[in-house]
Amino acid sequence: MAFTLPALSYSNDALEPNIDAKTMEIHHGKHHNGYTTKLNTSIEGSDLENKSIEEILKNIDMGNAALRNNGGGYFNHCLFWESMSPNGGGLPTGSLLEAINSAFGSFDSFKDAFSKAAATRFGSGWAWLCVHSGGEVEVCSSPNQDNPLMPGVGCGGYPILGLDVWEHAYYLNYQNRRPDYINSFFNVINWENVSKSYNLRS
Ligand code: MN3
Which residue from 34, 86, 122, 136 has the least number of CB within 10 angstroms? Predict the structure, then answer.
């Protein structure tokens, strides 16, 4: 089974002014579509065709650049779209909020740690909130299209929230102001989806 580009559950302009419509159109329709097509090419005719993307990434040969970049790019952007909502922002609730408070002391301290991970990732990459089995949460970041499911990357947990800090994710609207983009991301975080993923993986 070939992987397919998932449709967005909101329109390209739904996240404005935090994420502009043109960026969403190009990011989803061109960049994510490109990773999807190249992922399919890289697994064509191999036994990976029948594996889930999680299984592929967990067992990946990090020397296989085409699979690493495009498999990572496919998974990361799927999570990114689900990490946002036009009705997002605010604070998580329930067991996820408890886990965040337990790990960071407060939601504001978590926001600082996540924002710092995103702001200090040199060049292109991602910031993550991950859950470990048992429910502990941790923040980490990774370069390029790597993610913590891959061997030896990040904190080794399961990513439940991801922020793309490649310039293609924000440059049209924010130019060099990555910290402003990071701050705006918090206005659209879909905590309902992140909580669902937390409950599933903890
Ligand atoms: Mn991207």
Answer: 122
